[in-house]
Amino acid sequence: MINKLPSERYYTPQQVQDKLGITESALRNLVRTEQLHRIIPPGKKHGVFLREEVETFLSKWLAFVSINNIEGTEFRAATKEDIEDVQLFARHVFGEQTHSIETRFEWYNAYPKMTYILKDKDRLVAYMEILPIKHEVISDFMNGKIRGWQIAAKDFEKVKPGNEVEFIVMAMATTPDEPTGIRREYSADLLRGVMKELTKLGEEGIHITRVYATSATPTGIGILMHSGFIETGVRIGKRIAFCLNIDTTDLPFFQSYKEAYHTWKSKNEQARRARSTTSE
């Protein structure tokens, strides 16, 4: 019987959380999706994790987020002319389950920055839809009370300086026509581009408080968890619902946005105090 585990071979659950920078809920998700495996040695009540497996998982994640941009790719916000291409791409990836072209145009008219695309030599290879939606509507969507196509223009929150806004990642996809390694690189390019766009919103004084998302794939779930998203406890079929509190997260992935917003806020408060002093 094993009475003592050699510490150089294993991590405790808390050590795994500290190593990966994730919450207990996120660790449970990694075990549930079989990305990490909990081992309960004979005679022990509590599980541990192989250090080698944890280190390998971390190395793969770090490799993913540090991937250099593929030469020839272009990231940008979609224009109205791009929406039909996005629709065809989404139908290719998701089939008939994707949103209609009419829904996408309605969303675009409500918030033109809602879709970001990545092209490789003029070929659309990845996209993300991220919508600024009113809290009560997001709540209904995340709890399965409404479907995405039921979200209308009237449900969009106003995105302007000083406003608190919650976003929902409605869709993210890469082309299924490339090998896994290339798709991973496309995902990294897309995410880095979106983070730069969110940082621009911070510079404009847009206070993003939370971002919501759902995923049913191990890759998507892994990306969300390592980005700091926490499972809400709601499951819709195979889909897991996640939420990220931007104000409280200390993960590096979102620091550029937070620094940009706090710089804007500080300058705005200084200007307001200066005006108040002048008026006195």
Description of the molecule:
The chain has two domains: 10-65, Multidrug-efflux Transporter Regulator, Chain: A, Domain 2 (Orthogonal Bundle), CATH 1.10.1660; 73-268, Gcn5-related N-acetyltransferase (GNAT) (Aminopeptidase, 3-Layer(aba) Sandwich). It is built from nine helices and ten strands. It has helices at 13-20, 24-32, 51-65, 83-94, 101-110, 135-142, 180-203, 218-226, 255-279; strands spanning 10-11, 38-39, 48-50, 73-77, 115-120, 123-132, 164-174, 207-215, 230-236, 239-245. The strands form two sheets. A seven-stranded mixed sheet has the order 4-5-6-7-8-10-9, with helices on both faces. Helix 7 runs parallel beside helix 9. It is globular and about 70 Å long. The mean pLDDT is 86.
Features:
single chain; 280 residues; alpha+beta; Multidrug-efflux Transporter Regulator, Chain: A, Domain 2; Aminopeptidase; seven-stranded mixed β-sheet; three-stranded antiparallel β-sheet
Structural class: alpha+beta
Query: What is the chains' assembly state?
Result: single chain
**Widest beta sheet: strand line-up:** 4-5-6-7-8-10-9
> Could you please say which CATH topology of the largest domain applies here?
Aminopeptidase
Largest sheet: 7 strands, mixed
Question: Percent range for helical residues?
Answer: 40-55%
Number of strands: 10
Order of helices and strands: EHHEEHEHHEEHEHEHEEH
Tell me what the CATH architecture of the largest domain is: 3-Layer(aba) Sandwich
